[in-house]
From TrEMBL:
<dbReference type="GO" id="GO:0008270">
    <property type="term" value="F:zinc ion binding"/>
</dbReference>
<dbReference type="InterPro" id="IPR011032">
    <property type="entry name" value="GroES-like_sf"/>
</dbReference>
<keyword id="KW-0862">Zinc</keyword>
<dbReference type="Pfam" id="PF00107">
    <property type="entry name" value="ADH_zinc_N"/>
</dbReference>
<dbReference type="InterPro" id="IPR020843">
    <property type="entry name" value="ER"/>
</dbReference>
<dbReference type="Pfam" id="PF08240">
    <property type="entry name" value="ADH_N"/>
</dbReference>
<dbReference type="InterPro" id="IPR013154">
    <property type="entry name" value="ADH-like_N"/>
</dbReference>
<comment type="similarity">
    <text>Belongs to the zinc-containing alcohol dehydrogenase family.</text>
</comment>
<keyword id="KW-0479">Metal-binding</keyword>
<dbReference type="InterPro" id="IPR002328">
    <property type="entry name" value="ADH_Zn_CS"/>
</dbReference>
<keyword id="KW-0560">Oxidoreductase</keyword>
<dbReference type="InterPro" id="IPR050129">
    <property type="entry name" value="Zn_alcohol_dh"/>
</dbReference>
<dbReference type="InterPro" id="IPR013149">
    <property type="entry name" value="ADH-like_C"/>
</dbReference>
<dbReference type="InterPro" id="IPR036291">
    <property type="entry name" value="NAD(P)-bd_dom_sf"/>
</dbReference>
<dbReference type="GO" id="GO:0016491">
    <property type="term" value="F:oxidoreductase activity"/>
</dbReference>
<feature type="domain" description="Enoyl reductase (ER)">
    <location>
        <begin position="11"/>
        <end position="339"/>
    </location>
</feature>
<protein>
    <submittedName>
        <fullName>Alcohol dehydrogenase catalytic domain-containing protein</fullName>
    </submittedName>
</protein>
Amino acid sequence: MPAQNRRVLVRSIDDITLEEVPVPRPGDNELLIRSTVVGVCGSDTHAALGHHPFIDLPYRPGHEVVGVVEAAGARAGGFAPGDRVIIEPNLYCGRCAQCRSGRYNICRQLEVFGCQTPGGMAELFTIAAGRVHRVPDEMSDLQAALVEPLATPVHAVAKAGDLTGRTVAVLGAGPIGLLVLAAARHAGAAGIVATDLLDTKRERAVRLGADEALPADAADLTEQAQAVLGGPADVVFDCVAREQSMAQAVDLVAKGGRIIVVGVGAAGATPIRLDLVQDREIRIEGSLMYTVGDYRAAFDLITSGIVDAEAIVTATYPLEEAGAAFAAALRPEHVKVLVTVAAP
């Protein structure tokens, strides 16, 4: 075991480096894990740009992590060196009312591994064994890297209720929007419209199952979407979460319909037409992360081939080029960018 451990440090989008720190030792209930593949999330790039309301700079990223167990603490049962694993990064207290009801994704003291605590974009890291899931033998590292980002859309789609035969609009065709699209289609949505500003993202949304993908800045967006869906959308998933997208969501959704806010909004106030929300009985609901059931559903969607990792993962970079990986993740031609960690 080496004495030093390389870990990514993000000070800004233009200042992403490797720091050397001592190799951590697992506590009694912890695992020491060697990273193999780590995803770059939209939250990571927002944080690096200084735009994330809940992640302070500098930070040490890595919450979409695939790895191999190197060592286990004395009470970290169920795992052994050599086990392939992924992490579930929400770190919760287990005591508050939300945790006791099973909604630990909204724990009152929630922290996210790799966001508020040092993460797994490193050679080695430790984490509680209870935050780790074993990867099935038949699942590749590439596929396993999508379980965490897919679990968020799975959770959002579940919050929308039964989608069988219903119509859906997905605002934003980035990684989360595309995975919401896939999860909604699997949940039985009869018609799906996606929106985005970029041609390339709209084209990819259609390839991945949208009935139509429309320019997000179209003056007649509502009319175009209704023409495709046969009327207003029963459910709108806002994967952008900005003033303009929320205004569009209110215009697109049916009376009595539901808006699920999946994207991370900007800090501060976001204007919204409450007169229309009240008059049309529109239900607006946030969706944060996931719980273990969403993780299991994400596993199933990937192993069954419903979500094609090859279509989602568009670039990989070695750990030494983490800065280039962050830069690539901001470019419109990419969906999911991964950082790979070479074995010693």
